[in-house]
Amino acid sequence: MNISDLCITQDPISLRIADLILVYHIRPIERTMAETGIRIWCSEKSGYRPSWWDMKKGRSGTGAHCFLPGEFGATDWTANVQIQVLLEALIKYTDYTRFGVYPASGFIHCDYRKTKSGKRQVYNENWIVERVIE
Ligand SMILES: [Zn+2]
Questions:
Q1: How far is the CA of 36 from the centre of ligand 1 (A)?
Q2: pTM for this one?
Q3: How many structural domains are present in the chain?
């Protein structure tokens, strides 16, 4: 997996963002693939999305994909297995705190933002909490 696979605009990025992509997204997922044999890839290069790009798409520009200072970013992951199988693998082998499951689109949004419960949480596509991971 390459850092460019997680960059939606394909423009050059800062070293800060490159390091975050490598350490907080690519390495945990490569470890998950090695442990499970599941093939996992970034959905439509939706890892790092610059604020200006998200705003152009009608979003706030402050989402987790924007890798704002002090944050660790987000990636949308997809795989060659059913989405629930992917979810369980991501829960087991990564430290992501929030999992947004989008069954229709076939990806899971993963980030490191704090949750209300203080525990890792799974959300449905409307960002309603479906599960608190104990
Ligand atoms: Zn996402």
A1: 23
A2: 0.97
A3: 1
